[in-house]
Amino acid sequence: MRQTVKNLQIYRIREVANAGMGRDDVLKFWFGESDEVTPELIREAAIDSLRSGETFYAHNHGLPELREAIGAYTASLHPKTTGPEWAQRVVVTSGGVSGLMLACQTLLDAGDEVVAVTPVWPNLVAQPVIMGATVRTVSLRPGADGLWQLELQALLDAVTPTTKLLVLNAPNNPTGWTLTADEQQAILAHCRRTGTWILADEVYERLYFDAPCAPSFLDIAEPDDRLVVTHSFSKSFLMTGWRLGWLVLPPALVESVGKLVEFNTSCAPVFVQRGALAALAHQADITPRLVAHLRECRDVLTQALRVLPGVECGVPRGGMYAFFRIQGHTDSLITAKRLVTEAGLGLAPGVAFADEADGWLRWCFATRDLARLRQGVDRLAHWLGI
Amino acid sequence: MRQTVKNLQIYRIREVANAGMGRDDVLKFWFGESDEVTPELIREAAIDSLRSGETFYAHNHGLPELREAIGAYTASLHPKTTGPEWAQRVVVTSGGVSGLMLACQTLLDAGDEVVAVTPVWPNLVAQPVIMGATVRTVSLRPGADGLWQLELQALLDAVTPTTKLLVLNAPNNPTGWTLTADEQQAILAHCRRTGTWILADEVYERLYFDAPCAPSFLDIAEPDDRLVVTHSFSKSFLMTGWRLGWLVLPPALVESVGKLVEFNTSCAPVFVQRGALAALAHQADITPRLVAHLRECRDVLTQALRVLPGVECGVPRGGMYAFFRIQGHTDSLITAKRLVTEAGLGLAPGVAFADEADGWLRWCFATRDLARLRQGVDRLAHWLGI
Fold first, then answer.
1. Residue ranges per domain, chain B?
2. Between chains, do B56 and A33 touch, taking CB under 8 Å as contact?
3. Cys staple from A349: which of A336, B21, B134, B376, with CB 3.0 to 4.6 Å?
4. CA distances from A354 to A116, A179, A251, A350, A362 (A)
5. CA-based nearest distance B123→chain A, Å
6. A368 interfacial to chain B (CB closer than 8 Å)
7. Is A354 in CB contact (< 8 Å) with chain B?
8. Is the CB of A134 inside 8 Å of chain B's CB atoms?
């Protein structure tokens, strides 16, 4: 087996989850998904497809009607992407993570240099390593308000002409950090100079509380910029388990990524894609309601955490996570495991997302039932002896 | 973009399919799937799962009950794999192709050497190249009976201590070539000496006409042999569009492959896995009926082809393809495109599977309706002026 693969960290969130295995009484906030089932109209569209016998291979790029619907949806959020050619730049993938892996396979030879902004969902850093690339990280820093911030100049300094790819996830999992449009402009201009590709994981763009959509590189990029944007149906449409996402690509990459889809997963199931078509057709009903509810979840949770003595917790502008720390508890893996076994509270350890995030904890606040959040905070307070 | 990826051949079967785009009158035998819809009981199991709200992330390794069912199924075919530890060696993947890619990611560093037996489904050769490996091929040769055969010693000579991985697909797509148990023994013994991993794509093991199951490396290997076996629900259960397969791994690889599942597709949808559980529960009804019908398809097609003057066509022992050539038609891509546009007959060009298979054509005989095969042969005969 490859040493590179052996060295890949096992998903540390699972390590915590395993500590609570077999216990039904744990309040689980460790994974990045809501406890709400996919809306019925989406499930029924998939059921209709199965009933009608759509059980065959589909086009590598995705159903043409789904690519068109995604193109129209993208244009509605990012007017610069208006026009029929944009649907041709969409490739449907088997989840956002598959899209990210396809981007790495398309762009990275072994030995290439990648820069990533951390803390971040560990998959984004692992994928380039799997392709044999070297990853250098630029750290966000916690500010006085408890929110993590980018030092833009440090990032620009880190990206040089030898940097093949810059990986960014904003709105960010786990910190909620979001790039401003001005920062995106500065980064894009810099990467044009260095010849660096940008891989922008924007799956949380709709889970944003200051506007209907977070700033996106698609608002500013030109068609031939070295930019790959990843999206997913998981977060905005409550479809985590469906494994469906998409890429927005420069025209020159579409054919090659289609080849790589063939060699990775062949295609996404048609009945899954039919569910996604229903999701997009009803997105005006689904996503704003979901985001309004998530805002309430965020407020309930962060307000309850911020009054606990010794707890430092910002109020994130995007995403579905509170990222916080507790004075005196500096080893997040130990803290998270203790919280599971001693308090019945399931959180993700910050160290899963970056070494510099050790001591922090991620709490996914996407839940149907606000009382679960309050109950969780009660358990934490009790465990802290408050 | 990587030159390696640019150089990957676009799927040549699609190149032929594109030549027939927009024509409803083409008889399509070019893809490797039956025109039969997935059995209703499988679809209903997925529907029940969707209705009950199973729309969340699942374990990277697959549902425990599915891994157990696959373990039991494997033991029923390959008694040497009996025992509860075998289910722990099964990892569920998003299609057979994803399993193969995971195996390559697990085993291949850039610069590693791979040996593959060709002609073969092009994905098997492309995947190591994507990982930066170098692929050397050992060719099967057409025999007097029109069937392609392995020269075992040539293969053994090609696999040296510098060979990291040997890729084998038997029963073979496109030729129907099958390894004998003796050949598997010789290959395994040789690879033990050279320290070479064997990646055995055995997805066609049930589509075998001399016995209920083709010879498998799982019949002879020891638990710690360097062996990865890939399987799929696509062919034996008429589930091509579902994108579900599995790997059988040495114990030491299971954790690492689970990590790689996380970084590639996260997991397979639970409702898809429920369909697979139903498929396995009813496999005694589904697969033997399917194989009996495929045998009839094979006989109808090959008998009709073999009587055409100038046509050379063996009777394959496994798989779902007739692989044949026509005297005087040596460029298979041109021939396949002409057959689409001039005769309304959709076949796959041999060159898609290896340079040495140019001049050959692949005809997928998996069809509900035997009359379609006869009609296809009539079109071919008419086109040939017979």
1. 3-38+285-381, 53-282
2. yes
3. A336
4. 11, 19, 34, 7, 12
5. 5
6. no
7. no
8. no
Q: What SS3 state is found at B191?
A: helix
Query: Which CATH entry fits the domain spanning B53-282: 3.30.499.10, 3.30.450.90, 3.40.50.720, 3.40.640.10?
Result: 3.40.640.10
Residue A361 tokens read as 């904890």
Residues of chain A with C-beta less than 8 angstroms from the C-beta of B55: 37-38, 43, 238-242
For chain A, the maximum distance between any two Cα atoms, rounded to a whole number of angstroms, is 60
Judged by CB atoms closer than 8 Å, whether chains meet at A264 and B264 is answered as: yes
Distance from CA of B17 to the nearest CA of A (A): 11
Please write the tens of the pLDDT for every residue from B40-57: 999 999 999 999 999 999
Measured between alpha carbons, how far is residue A302 from residues A297, A298, A309, A312, A365 in Å? 8, 6, 13, 10, 9
Flag whether residue B313 sits within 8 Å of chain A, measured between CB atoms. no
- Give SS3 for B381: helix
Average pLDDT (A294-310) is: 98
Q: What is the ipTM of this complex?
A: 0.97
Q: Do B256 and A107 touch (CB under 8 A)?
A: no
Identify the CA nearest to B351 among candidates B183, B140, B174, B194. B174
- List of chain A residues whose C-beta atoms are within 8 Å of the C-beta of residue B63: none
Amino acid at B120: V
The reply to whether A229 touches chain B by the CB within 8 Å rule is no
Q: What are B330's strand-pairing partners?
A: none
Q: Do A265 and B243 touch (CB under 8 A)?
A: yes
Mean pLDDT by 10 residues, chain B (386 residues): 91 81 89 96 98 96 97 97 92 98 98 98 97 98 96 98 98 98 98 98 97 97 96 98 98 96 97 98 97 98 97 97 97 96 96 96 97 98 95
In A105-119, which positions are buried (b, 16+ CB within 10 angstroms) versus exposed (e)? Answer: bbbbeeebbbbbbbb
List all residues 6 or more positions away from B371 whose beta carbon is below 8 Å from its beta carbon.
Answer: none
Does the CB of A262 have a partner CB in chain B at under 8 Å? yes
In the chain, the amino acid numbered A68 is E
- Best CA proximity match to A50, nearest among A278, A276, A238, A272: A272
- CATH number among 3.40.50.2000, 3.90.1150.10, 3.40.710.10, 3.40.50.620, domain A3-38+285-383: 3.90.1150.10
- B-chain residues near A241 (CB < 8 A): 54-58, 267, 269-271
> What pairs with residue A136 in β-bridges?
A115
Distance from C-alpha of A236 to C-alpha of A70, rounded to nearest angstrom: 13
The model's pLDDT over A219-270, given as tens digits with 9 standing for 90+, comes to: 999 989 999 999 999 999 999 999 999 999 999 999 999 999 999 999 999 9
Pair of tokens at residue B48: 């029940």
Shortest distance, CA A30 to any CA of chain B (angstroms): 12
Top-level class of domain A51-281 = alpha beta
3-state DSSP assignment of residue B51: helix
DSSP string, A258-315: HHHHHHHTS---HHHHHHHHHHHHTHHHHHHHHHHHHHHHHHHHHHHHHTSTTEEE--
Which SS3 state, helix, strand or coil, does residue A199 take?
A: strand
Phi/psi zone of residue A145: left (φ > 0), alpha (ψ -120 to 50 degrees), beta? alpha
Identify the closest residue of chain A to B32 by CA–CA distance: A57
Q: Residue A66 is encoded by which pair of tokens?
A: 């789904």
Which tokens sit at A167?
């990986």
Indicate the CATH number for domain B3-38+285-381.
Answer: 3.90.1150.10
